[in-house]
Amino acid sequence: MAHPPRSFSQGLRRALLTGFVVSSSLSLADEARSEAKAPPPAHAPEGSPHWGYVDTLGPTHWGELPGARTCANGKEETPVALVTSSAAVDPQPAPVFRYASSRVRMVNNGHTVEFQYDGGSTLRVNGKDYTLAQFHFHTPSEHTEDGKHFPLEMHLVHKDAKGRLVVMGVFFEVGAHNAVLDTAFSHLPWGEGEHSDPQGALIQASALLPKDPTYFHYQGSLTTPPCTEGVEWYVMKHPVTLSDVQLASFQRLPHINPNNRAIQPLNARTVYLHASVVESPAVSRVEE
């Protein structure tokens, strides 16, 4: 099949970008929104283009979007390559998890499935509490560990009263069935803008963390437009498992496979490694 002339492709991209408007609620799209607000369709009608992962407005063009220049010229961008042998010892105290159970409330925002977490769950970092607002998934993983991509990566997004973000990343590999994700992954919302709230279903975020608490720690950014920096990242070194059937249930969702940003330059940053995490006893009740 003949390809359109280069000038035509460039003109099309300029036309798409001219009609693109980024609202403040979409700016934190996959990394910081705690309320269910469906963005415009990832494959919107003509005149309403939106960023994505494999189309014209894919990651290599995010920096051309209005308000998203950091995606192209940022110096502390995420994800990065995590290398055990070159990581420094983390001088900071380990974060403290205080996670309650939550109702299962999911929304397909066209880029991932976001699990909106009930109030009452926090992560304490350096004496400050950050509320767990939501978690979501990327396939394949956005970070690499010692050169390896995992088939799935979860991001637990926490924020404080001033909107500052701390994200905890967890790798998943294919193996034993994950009972914690069973109900949720059996009711994933298929289409963009769709919600799924299985009646009576609960989920405990602490049960999605690996038993070995070793983690990497570094300063980074959002992994979606506008790629805002100043995000504190913790990424668990050891993966947890899910079955191949569970992985397939996520990967078959339209426009979501793949949904990972490429590895970004580390530049002058240091990646730290910490071998222990202090976890408080889980709270079993749901905070209303």
CATH top level class name: Alpha Beta
Taking the sheet with the most strands, its summary is: 14 strands, mixed
CATH architecture: Roll
Average the pLDDT over all residues and give the rounded result. 85
Number of strands: 19
Element-by-element helix/strand order: HHHHEEEEEEEEEEEHEEEEEHEEE
CATH superfamily: Alpha carbonic anhydrase
**Range of strand content:** 25-35%
Kindly identify the CATH topology: Carbonic Anhydrase II
Span between termini? 57 Å
* Count of individual domains: 1
Approximate shape: globular
Count of runs of 4 or more consecutive helical residues: 6
Helix content: 10-25%
| Computed CA radius of gyration, to the nearest angstrom | 19 Å
Helix/strand-derived category reads alpha/beta
List low-pLDDT spans: 1-49, 277-288
Describe the structure.
By secondary structure, the protein is α/β, with parallel strands linked by helices. The chain is built from six helices and 19 strands. It has one domain (6-286): Carbonic Anhydrase II (Roll), CATH 3.10.200. The protein is 13% helix and 30% strand. The longest helix is centred in the N-terminal third of the chain and has 13 residues, at 6-18. The model is unreliable at 1-49 and 277-288 (pLDDT under 50).
